[in-house]
């Protein structure tokens, strides 16, 4: 059999036995604290998605409640995405400076408050204001969740863990869809029930994280600084100085990460945010059927994220992303052309398998390429700046569909409707091509031991890089490699 082309070999990480003892032995070696810290991060991200998609699932109900067109309701989605960058900066800095635990707890409590408030508003301007504030709180969750979950696990598990963690997003969407299908459909409070349920789950997540210890990486760093006699004021000065140093050294990497996450966020939001509206408007399905199709799509997302994350540990981060994005391109026709429910549901499963399969690699890909001391701020801000650029995706689709009309047979009568199918197909096709190009020409620091490096409040943290120029693990590590598995 002929060997793989050199092009593909460039994406496959070289085997390094010193860095991998296998997934099964690593799973068996995990402590209760490691399991709990991972799943608390996963739950926080799940809560984030539950509340965000509560708007997407109730666009029609919100439109009737506030007597506004669909394009006006999607403004709430846009505002939430716009303000997430502010939250990523605020909570990312707090996390890299003070630790993972309490910034995430406070972040979750704020999400709970704004989610609860979303269910009590009485006017459309109030709704927009609360969703904007929620965007700030929501912006901090991903960076803090990913850093907390991944840095406490051994290197061998981070690919699989990345995929499972990221699909907390799909699970949140799935749970919101189930609640929308059951509680909302039978509640006198209709759409408000969805936001109140999300607030309760988020409060539980905050309590759970508060009961768990701080990340071991920060406990070690704080003990080391305490032994030196460094006070809080001195650590803050060091943090600011090292942040400036990191930006000077890694500004090109920052730009690349934002470009990558812009493409990924367009891919995700473009295929999900108005999907229930697309099925009801362009295909003539009921809200019940649209919710069922959404649930099927999210099952594909969960499977894709876990499988792709696991595979990335063996074939590399970039190659896993490339294969999943190619899968998206292949199944776009099945996603938009059929008229039957079964075919469209199959298309939704396949598209979300590819979209969220690619996304499943992102937490670990960003963590490994990040300056090690800024694993909450760097990925979180890059992610949310990409979100900000892609924030108008729902409005782009709604506006484009309103101008690009099509005719469907509804109740035996030809009906002129907005053509969401064509608009979504064009958008996702273009974005998938963009993501492919950016990924191919990007960096990959597979199996980086970032937990061994300095934190952002230690001298040299901003200059501490995961790899030397020859691609080997840097000798300037903060912790003995033997103790890298927390």
TrEMBL record:
Location (main, coarse): membrane
One Gene Ontology molecular-function label: secondary active monocarboxylate transmembrane transporter activity
GO biological process: plasma membrane lactate transport
Membrane topology of this protein: Multi-pass membrane protein
Major facilitator superfamily (MFS) profile domain: residues covered: 37-446
Regions crossing the membrane: 72-95, 102-122, 128-150, 170-188, 194-212, 249-267, 287-307, 319-337, 420-441
Record GO cellular component, one term: plasma membrane
Top-rank taxon, per record: Eukaryota
Disordered: region residues: 456-486
InterPro entries for the chain: MFS, MFS_dom, MFS_trans_sf
Record's subcellular location: Membrane
CDD domains the UniProt entry points to: MFS_SV2_like
Keywords: Membrane, Transmembrane, Transmembrane helix
Alphabetical list of SUPFAM superfamilies matching this protein: MFS general substrate transporter
Alphabetized Pfam families for the sequence: MFS_1 (PF07690)
Protein name per Swiss-Prot or TrEMBL: Major facilitator superfamily (MFS) profile domain-containing protein
